[in-house]
Amino acid sequence: MFNSLRQTARQRFLLAARLCISSMMTVSLNSLNSAAAADWPQHLGPSRNGISTEHGLLESWLAGGLPEVWRVAGGVGSSGLAIEGNRLVTMVERGGQQLVVALDAKSGRQLWEAPIGPGYENPQGNGPRGTPTIADGYVFAFSGDGILLVLEMSDGRIVWRHDTLRQHEGRAADYGMACSPLVVGELVIVTVGAPAATVVAYHRETGETAWTAGQGDAPGYSSPALLNVGGQTQTVVFSGAAAMGLVSDSGDELWRYPYVTDFGCNIATPLAIDGRVFLSAGENHGSVLLTLKPSGDTFDAEEVWESQGPKSVLRNEWQTSILWEDYLYGMDNVGGAGPITHLTCIEAATGKRQWQELRYGKGNLIAADGKLFISTLRGELVVARANPREYDELGRMTVLGPTRQAPAIANGLLYLRDDAEIVCLDVREAR
Question: DSSP for 91-127?
Fold first, then answer.
């Protein structure tokens, strides 16, 4: 009995310590996000949730559309755009090579390019997939064939590189390695999907392996996120077979929730909703909101609500939904990667559908200043108010060719790319 009481006391102490550390990390994260609110330094922006905290953006559509600031040649690939200060970084493929490319964010002038490997070919599209991450003067990039690199932001010099699949005896995902590196403190974390290493963390400065976590899961195509859920800041990973929460500095598993999708096509990034975890996947799968209940040193993941299968309220294919003021706005794809996609709004706490814009078409989206900025597979940019009562479009214009990438917003400018060009538009309210 004494040992049992001592064990219970120890568990309570460890949980309290974790919550204290989580609180301090959250303060640090909030300070970082506040200081860099005008930047878009990684996949899905400052907090990896598709939301910019900028204000003063357009309130009405201009007669001639949004002013174009610059347009330059880019290259093939699905990599998104990362912006910090006056620099924009992305990955492209051209001339038979995968490249990390840095541009002047104000003019589009190329500053440098760094070859990171031979071209990557895949039936679902060629070129790199992941979005680079900018942190503390460095660029962290992950190629379509699983090469992880750290480069100097100033000139593109490669600091270190690892062939993660060879190192951990893994196999590339069927449609290419698509993870966008997550930087947490002194570590950079990527989903590898090797038999004995679903997730790998490396020391940022040296490139040495810090920890591995998970076994037997395919990598999927999602990117890990640092979320404050269950009262603890943790790294949440959505692999091809499950979601899991990890202690960021050790890789210790806190919880696991199986989520098997056809072809391992878990692509959307996990989101935090009032301390809970939201997951969604296409291939006719669906969505679920999880609550994490403490269980000793770990958590039990339990459904708050779920909506799965052909009649699900929301099936994100490759897009991450946007949480704006208690409502989720996202792309609901019908069937197994089928051609029909509805733009949908649901109440986050309940999963209740608010409205649906039928046959909207495939696209991607982010949010800022109460508006949704939507890119479509037809090359359009659409701006609509984040309105839970109805679809409220301000306007749309064709910007470039077909694109799957989401826009990025930084310092009042919106950036978007396809397989040929990178475009910058002014989205500030006219003065």
Answer: EEEETTEEEEEEEETTT--EEEEEEEEE----TT--S
Q: What is the tally of structural domains in the chain?
A: 1
Which CATH number belongs to the domain containing residue 137 in this structure? 2.140.10.10
Please report the pLDDT score of residue 265 as a whole number. 87
Please name which of 150, 45, 68, 181 lies closest in space to residue 421, comparing C-alpha atoms. Answer: 68
Contacts 24+ apart (CB under 8 A), 115-118: 116/91, 116/141, 116/143, 116/147, 116/149, 116/158, 116/161, 117/143, 117/145, 117/147
Residue 41 lies in a domain: yes
In a domain, 402, yes or no: yes
* Residue 132: burial class (beta carbons within 10 Å; 0-12, 13-18, 19+): buried
Helix, strand or coil for residue 181? coil
- Banded pLDDT at 159 (limits 50, 70, 90): very high
| Domain extent at residue 107 | 2-426
Compare 124 and 207 and report the one with higher pLDDT: 207
- Residue 431 within any structural domain of the chain: no
- What is the length of the chain? 431
Residue 292 within a domain: yes
Q: What is the chain's alpha carbon radius of gyration, rounded to the nearest angstrom?
A: 21
Alpha-carbon distances, residue 234 vs 26, 29, 140, 210 (angstroms): 10, 12, 20, 16
DSSP structure string for 38-64: T-B-STTTTTTSSEE----B-SS--TT
- Residue 167's Cβ-count burial label (10 Å; 0-12, 13-18, 19+) is middle
Question: Of 304 and 27, which is predicted with more confidence?
Answer: 304
Higher pLDDT, 402 or 336: 402
Contact 52, 152 (CB under 8 A): no
